[in-house]
């Protein structure tokens, strides 16, 4: 068992995951520094999504543990993990398609303020001015303010992804997990999203990004871990990763850019 | 031991009926993705095919013979079924065996009703929510049962067992027991065999025909089969017709065991849904297994010994089992993951 | 705390006026007698409560009649044991049905989709069967639970409010009889309260969370909501509404029978809600009123009335028309009900409220259309 250094907010320690006889993850030791953007890259089937699912508690690890700021996440329900301050953006956007865009953003704010369960029947959503203003400000940031009364299901795919990001951001999480946040986006949308993520970078929020797009990775990441065949084969600063021969062999296919 | 066997047998024929209804229900759900609350009504319509057939076949001519007088002096009315006039002794056999023979009427009629239902209404609901499917088929079930009620009235109409098949088989003797130790009514035995035959037939049809192969593939993965350029629509219609026929003949043969009334379908529907869910939504063998299982359990629960031990258990056993199975094994005995979960 | 948005206030005001003036506007429709209007109010409460569960969370319960029945039984027992006053009876009915809903909901809500529906159905059917058999000491079996002159009524005894009138004691509201119009106004006021409560829930963050569960349960979990207690709370609240409706049934007609727990009764409230419009405020009320109205009107028509109505037709035609129509009325009114449902689900999937909105939208578009034409003309 490795010791977690003080400035590490998320630590996946000795994580193994077997599916039947198949080893999906082995010997994972991932340390994410507070306030940094940490990218996890790797070829298809390397176990990136499995790792993310283990972190978020969707899949229990076969052995090892995930520790967030001194709390063991293993075995906790998704809502408990969120209440600790971890929000997640999915690969296919998980939003509330039947609710207005504004309410999509307000609901997570209520979860942040009121906790996992509270029968708040006496006040009305409309009279919650503070949360409403906050939600409108974020919608303004992502350019969806004009469509706040529309049903979220009617948004385009790119808008849905941005909305989901806003739903996570309004919770002001300590750790934001992003599963390919720009997959399927146009170049233009990708750049707007990068800008948005850069903007919140300064706010001190820790981010873990799983991404295919090297352009996105190298524009955002402070540190990069490379996953191949269920193992972390390299971890370091973007420049180090770019130059690491093992990485180039396993993933980048010799040379980036 | 004999008591045990007797109860087992008693449960089997009811289980056969449950299994037959649940089989069609599952078939429709698995291929068409439709929750059919009118399926019980199809069973009930089958029952009334038997009633109708018997009604038609026993239409009588009344002749008054002025020569003969009854003891109180009125002329005697002689009633002869028309078929007897036309076919003689064969007509008498027809009347006696009206229940099994009415299967010949039930098969085409139920097929037509099934196809009409699917083409007329159900096909528009493939893409709609389960709640809407439930609602429209529930409405349909009410319509069907009310139509039957307006023609046949509200009282149950008992159907006779053919004379030769009345009485009980001394099946204990077959297994080397002393006579009269283990008896079982012939008709129940026939129903059991019949349901086994129909179930076997449906499985064989699905297993050994190209059509059945496509249907099974459709149950496993509807979209892919659709993408393969196979005209699923027409096959769906046939599947629905088939399910209707299975429910119908199950009803026909059940009439001597339980005099049918117009709301019989609803009573069986609730139970069959429980059966389907216990067996596992979308699993044909699960539906059959659960049908027999619940029939047998119900029979055991209605034993006096059991009832005195746990009062009221006979009333609730099926639901109790459903609750326990759903809580312990959420997807039923043989269900696949993720079906109808949301 | 008790405030509503302006739109909701207007809705509540309109609703209150509509409910309280029922005796006036129902008169031309031939439905303004207290017994029927009480039913309108009671079933509307039942449907409003059901809609809080089904409309907001999307969990389709097929066993809500159980809570209606429990409310009825509790009320009659409160009359027998405590007092003929309706207030303690209602309070107890709501509490007991709430506890009952808590237990059933705790188990049923472990599953979703049709599995949840079947679980609730199974629990309700068990209650129904047990009410007829083992629980006869509590439910009085097929006869139904009735009041008796020599019931103890401990609370009444303490306060010395023993009625010495001949015959059975009647339920009272602080000493006033609640038969006839008083009974209707009692139900009406409670209906308005129920509607207000449902407005509050719809507009509240709690209601929003319930809608979120219907829309995307996964997102709710990953957003930090513990969805189980939310659905359970909705289940219990809607069970309490059903219990209250059951209580009012027994208050306006002091007896309780197991047939109120039958699954067809559960099916009825589903139909009312969907007919009017799931997840809307007015929908369930409209659905309940329509079904109860048609049930009453259609089932009261008999062949004689039809013969009179069509007497202007030639004899043969009249006979034919009357024969056909008689299948749809009186005993056969259920046939009309079934047809109505099929037609509405086929042609008006969102229920009447959505149909109305769509109709209004089309009207508006038609009104706007000519203007648009004129404004584009100069550009050509």
UniProtKB/TrEMBL annotation, chain A:
Pfam families: ABC_tran (PF00005), BCA_ABC_TP_C (PF12399). CDD domains: ABC_Mj1267_LivG_branched (cd03219). GO terms for cellular component: plasma membrane. GO terms for molecular function: ATP binding; ATP hydrolysis activity. InterPro entries: AAA+_ATPase (IPR003593), ABC_AA/LPS_Transport (IPR051120), ABC_transporter-like_ATP-bd (IPR003439), BCA_ABC_TP_C (IPR032823), P-loop_NTPase (IPR027417). Residues 10-254 form the ABC transporter domain. Keywords: ATP-binding, Nucleotide-binding, Transport. This is Amino acid/amide ABC transporter ATP-binding protein 1 (HAAT family). It comes from Pseudaminobacter salicylatoxidans. The lineage of its organism: Bacteria, Pseudomonadati, Pseudomonadota, Alphaproteobacteria, Hyphomicrobiales.
From TrEMBL, chain B:
It is a multi-pass membrane protein. GO terms for biological process: amino acid transport. It is found in: Cell membrane. Keywords: Amino-acid transport, Cell membrane, Membrane, Transmembrane, Transmembrane helix, Transport. CDD domains: TM_PBP1_LivH_like (cd06582). The chain crosses the membrane at residues 15-34, 41-57, 90-113, 134-152, 189-215, 236-257, 269-297, 309-328. GO terms for molecular function: transmembrane transporter activity. One of its GO terms (cellular component) is plasma membrane. Pfam families: BPD_transp_2 (PF02653). Belongs to the binding-protein-dependent transport system permease family. LivHM subfamily. This is Amino acid/amide ABC transporter membrane protein 1 (HAAT family).
UniProtKB/TrEMBL annotation, chain C:
GO terms for cellular component: plasma membrane. Keywords: Cell membrane, Membrane, Transmembrane, Transmembrane helix. It is found in: Cell membrane. Its main location: membrane. The chain crosses the membrane at residues 12-33, 40-67, 87-107, 114-135, 178-198, 229-249, 269-291, 312-329, 335-356. GO terms for molecular function: branched-chain amino acid transmembrane transporter activity. Signal peptide: none annotated. It is a multi-pass membrane protein. Coiled coil: none annotated. InterPro entries: ABC_transp_permease, LivM-like. It comes from the Bacteria. The keyword Electron transport does not apply. This is Amino acid/amide ABC transporter membrane protein 2 (HAAT family). It comes from Pseudaminobacter salicylatoxidans. The lineage of its organism: Bacteria, Pseudomonadati, Pseudomonadota, Alphaproteobacteria, Hyphomicrobiales.
């Amino acid at each position: 068992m490795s010791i977690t250094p003080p400035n590490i907010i998320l630590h996946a320690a000795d994580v193994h995951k077997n599916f039947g006889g198949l080893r999906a993850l082995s010997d994972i030791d991932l340390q994410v520094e507070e306030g940094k953007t940490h990218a996890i890259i790797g070829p298809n089937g390397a176990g990136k999504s499995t790792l993310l699912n283990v972190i978020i508690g969707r899949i229990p690890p076969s052995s090892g543990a995930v520790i967030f700021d001194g709390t063991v996440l293993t075995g906790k329900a998704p809502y408990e993990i969120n209440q600790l301050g971890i929000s997640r953006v999915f690969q296919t956007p998980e939003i509330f398609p039947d609710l207005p865009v504004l309410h999509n953003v307000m609901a997570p704010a209520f979860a942040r303020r009121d906790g996992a369960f509270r029968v708040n029947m006496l006040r009305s959503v409309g009279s919650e001015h503070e949360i409403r203003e906050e939600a409108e400000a974020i919608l303004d940031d992502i350019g969806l303010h004009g469509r706040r009364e529309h049903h979220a299901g009617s948004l385009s795919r790119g808008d849905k992804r941005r909305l989901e990001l806003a739903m996570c951001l309004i919770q002001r999480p300590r750790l934001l997990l992003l599963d390919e946040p720009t997959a399927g986006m146009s170049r233009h949308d990708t750049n707007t999203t990068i800008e948005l993520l850069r903007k919140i970078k300064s706010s001190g929020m820790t981010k873990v990004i799983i991404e295919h797009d090297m352009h996105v990775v190298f524009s955002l990441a402070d540190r990069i871990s490379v996953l191949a065949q269920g193992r972390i084969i390299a971890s370091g600063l973007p420049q180090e990763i770019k130059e690491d021969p093992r990485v180039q062999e396993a993933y980048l296919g010799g040379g980036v850019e | 031991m004999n008591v045990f066997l007797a109860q087992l047998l008693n449960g089997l024929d009811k289980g056969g009926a449950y299994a037959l209804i649940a089989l069609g229900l599952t078939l429709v759900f698995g291929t068409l993705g439709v929750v059919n609350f009118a399926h019980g009504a199809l069973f009930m319509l089958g029952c009334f095919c038997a009633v109708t057939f018997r009604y038609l076949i026993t239409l009588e001519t009344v002749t008054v013979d002025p020569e003969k007088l009854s003891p109180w002096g009125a002329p005697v009315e002689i009633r002869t079924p028309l078929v007897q006039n036309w076919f003689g002794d064969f007509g008498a056999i027809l009347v006696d065996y009206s229940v099994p023979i009415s299967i010949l009427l039930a098969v085409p009629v139920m097929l037509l009703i099934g196809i009409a239902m699917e083409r007329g209404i159900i096909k528009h609901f493939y893409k709609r929510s389960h709640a809407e499917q439930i609602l429209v088929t529930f409405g349909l079930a009410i319509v069907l049962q009310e139509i039957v009620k307006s023609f046949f009235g509200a009282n149950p109409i008992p159907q006779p067992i053919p004379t030769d098949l009345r009485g009980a088989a001394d099946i204990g003797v077959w297994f080397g027991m002393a006579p009269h130790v283990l008896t079982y009514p012939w008709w129940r035995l026939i129903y059991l065999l019949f349901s086994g035959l129909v179930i076997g037939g449906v499985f064989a049809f699905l297993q050994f025909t190209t059509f059945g192969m496509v249907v099974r593939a459709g149950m496993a993965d509807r979209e892919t089969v659709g993408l393969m350029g196979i005209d699923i629509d027409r096959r769906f219609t046939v599947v629905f017709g088939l399910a209707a026929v299975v429910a119908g003949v199950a009803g026909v043969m059940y009439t001597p065991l339980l005099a049918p009334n117009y709301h019989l379908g609803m009573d069986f529907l609730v139970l069959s849904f429980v059966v389907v869910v216990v067996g596992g939504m979308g699993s044909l063998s699960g539906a059959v297994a659960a049908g027999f299982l619940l029939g047998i359990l119900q029979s055991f629960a209605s034993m006096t010994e059991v009832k005195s031990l746990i009062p009221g258990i006979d009333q609730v056993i099926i639901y109790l089992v459903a609750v326990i199975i759903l809580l312990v094994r959420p997807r039923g005995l043989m269900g696949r993951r993720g079906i109808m979960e949301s | 705390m008790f405030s509503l948005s302006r739109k909701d206030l207007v809705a509540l005001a309109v609703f209150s006026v509509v409910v309280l003036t029922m005796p006036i506007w129902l008169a031309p429709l031939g439905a303004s007698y207290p017994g029927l209007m009480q039913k309108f109010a009671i079933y509307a409460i039942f449907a409003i409560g059901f809609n809080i569960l089904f409309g907001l969370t999307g969990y389709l319960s097929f066993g809500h009649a159980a809570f209606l029945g429990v409310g009825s039984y509790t009320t009659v027992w409160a009359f027998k044991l405590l007092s003929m006053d309706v207030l303690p009876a209602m309070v107890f009915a709501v509490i007991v049905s709430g506890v009952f809903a808590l237990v059933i909901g705790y188990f049923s809500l472990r599953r979703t989709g049709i599995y949840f529906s079947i679980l609730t159905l199974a629990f309700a059917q068990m209650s129904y069967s047990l009410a007829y058999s083992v629980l006869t000491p509590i439910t009085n079996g097929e006869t139904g639970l009735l009041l008796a002159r020599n019931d103890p009524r401990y609370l009444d005894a303490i306060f010395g409010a023993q009625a010495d009138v001949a015959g059975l004691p009647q339920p009272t509201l602080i000493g006033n009889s609640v038969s006839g119009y008083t009974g209707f106004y009692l139900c009406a006021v409670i209906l308005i309260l129920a509607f207000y409560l449902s407005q509050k829930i719809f507009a509240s963050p709690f209601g929003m969370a319930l809608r979120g569960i219907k829309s995307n349960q996964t997102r709710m979990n990953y957003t930090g909501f513990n969805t189980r207690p939310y659905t359970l709370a909705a289940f219990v609240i809607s069970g309490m509404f059903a219990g209250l409706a059951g209580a009012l049934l027994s208050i306006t007609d002091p007896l309780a029978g197991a047939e109120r727990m039958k699954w067809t009764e559960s099916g009825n409230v589903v139909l009312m809600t969907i007919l009017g419009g799931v997840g809307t405020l007015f929908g369930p009320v409209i659905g309940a009123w329509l079904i109860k109205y048609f049930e009453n009107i259609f089932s009261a028509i008999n062949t004689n009335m039809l013969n009179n109505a069509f007497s202007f037709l030639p004899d043969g035609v009249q006979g034919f028309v009357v024969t056909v129509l008689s299948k749809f009325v009186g005993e056969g009114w259920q046939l009309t009900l079934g047809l109505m449902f099929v037609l509405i689900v086929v042609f008006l999937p969102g229920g009447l409220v959505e149909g109305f909105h769509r109709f209004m939208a089309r009207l508006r578009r038609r009104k706007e259309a000519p203007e648009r034409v004129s404004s584009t003309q100069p550009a050509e």
